[in-house]
Design goal:
This protein is an alpha/beta fold and 355 residues long. The protein has two domains: 81 residues, no CATH class; 179 residues, no CATH class. The chain contains twelve helices and six strands. The protein has a five-stranded mixed β-barrel. The longest helix is centred in the C-terminal third of the chain and has 34 residues.
């Protein structure tokens, strides 16, 4: 009979499980490498990746002869000399203009002096200098609850643009022919819109009602402006005036995006292979009861010469259990010669004689 090996630890591990285990270890290694990068934890500090890349680009040294995008943008900036908040007289004039500001109302004519004054301040200095003294990422709820605290303050926000409109500017002290009204939202404002007024359109951002892009805005908060939505509902949005530029992308930003795509593809492949392996094993695995019954052979299906396959010792044990036919035969013959008397039921038995 076929010998069966005892496996105290179960069946051997299949190749599919070994491959899945190795791929799982590779995924853990990639997660460990990703977790070591500072950008992976920016969400805990409410700082977007683009902002982190901007800061890293500014602080990291550049090789000789290589200019960053921010430096290239500074060389093409249109700087207009003039007073700004550093001048005490100009600051006093702004405070006088801000007294007539009314929040949660459309922009009024008497609010235009403060509007043009703040827009002019943003054009008097390079973008980097203006950005250095700005407040970063003011919470949307704080701006709603305390607008007077932030009115006239320089702010820096990362805006996800969804709408850009161009208007012909009326006669103004800045001598501008066009102004651009940009609608978008930030990471902390979610779906609530923010409106910014720009004297120049940033490169790479088209004009239209269905736009997707990002800009870095630095400017001054003016008021909460009331407006009518497409559903003819009254809504409010913070209105800021200033300047904007595209976000600076470092050389490793594109590589990081490709790395994330490869990582997601690998994770999806691991799950797909694991599912296919499990499904294949379910189809190919036979029930344990059927496998045990397959090893049992019915007596009537045994071949005639099954004794020829056994060893001499096994054969002797089997033959010793068979009774001796020679010793039994004489007893059977002796008993077979004895004849029983025949009794006729019609003849009465003879009477016994008495002496």
């Amino acid at each position: 009979m076929r010998r069966r090996l005892a496996r105290p630890f179960g069946n051997t591990v299949s190749h599919a499980r070994i491959v899945s285990m190795l791929m799982g270890l590779a995924v853990l290694a990639m997660l460990y490498q990703r977790a070591k990068e500072p950008q992976f934890w920016r969400w805990m500090t409410n700082e977007s990746r683009a902002d982190a890349e901007d800061n890293q680009t500014k602080t990291s040294p550049r090789p000789d002869g290589v200019k960053s995008q921010a430096n290239a943008a500074n060389t093409s900036e249109n700087i207009v000399p003039g007073p700004n908040e550093t001048d005490p007289e100009e600051l006093a004039k702004l405070r006088s203009n801000l007294k007539s500001i009314q929040d949660r109302q459309p922009l009024q004519p008497h609010e235009m002096p403060a509007y043009w004054r703040l827009l002019g301040w943003s054009r008097t200095r390079p973008f980097a200098e203006l950005e250095k003294g700005a407040i970063r990422d003011v919470p949307y709820s704080h701006l709603w609850e305390e607008p007077d605290l932030y009115r006239g303050q320089p702010m820096r926000i990362k805006l996800h643009v969804r709408r850009v409109l161009a208007y012909d500017a009326k006669e103004n002290p800045q001598g501008l022919k066009k102004v651009y009204e940009v609608y978008g939202f930030t990471d902390n404002s979610l779906s609530s819109p923010i409106v910014v007024i720009l004297p120049e359109k940033p490169p790479g951002v088209p004009v239209g009602t269905d736009v997707e892009g990002d800009i870095v805005f630095v400017g001054y908060f003016l008021k909460w402006m009331g407006y009518r939505s497409f559903e003819d509902k009254k809504k409010n949005a913070p209105l800021l005036v200033g300047r904007a530029r595209p976000p600076v992308r470092s050389a490793g930003a594109g590589q990081t995006g490709g790395w994330e795509l490869a990582f997601l593809t690998l994770v999806g492949g691991v799950f797909a292979l694991t599912f296919l392996g499990w499904f294949s094993l379910r189809l190919l695995r036979r029930p344990r009861s059927a496998a045990a019954g397959a090893n049992v052979i019915a007596p009537e299906r045994l071949p005639d010469n099954w004794m020829s396959n056994t060893t001499s010792e096994t054969r002797s044990e089997l033959t010793s259990s068979i009774p001796d036919i020679v010793t039994v035969t004489p007893f059977l013959a002796a008993t077979s010669t004895v004849e029983a008397p025949v009794v006729n039921p019609a003849t009465p038995p003879a009477a016994s004689s008495t002496t």
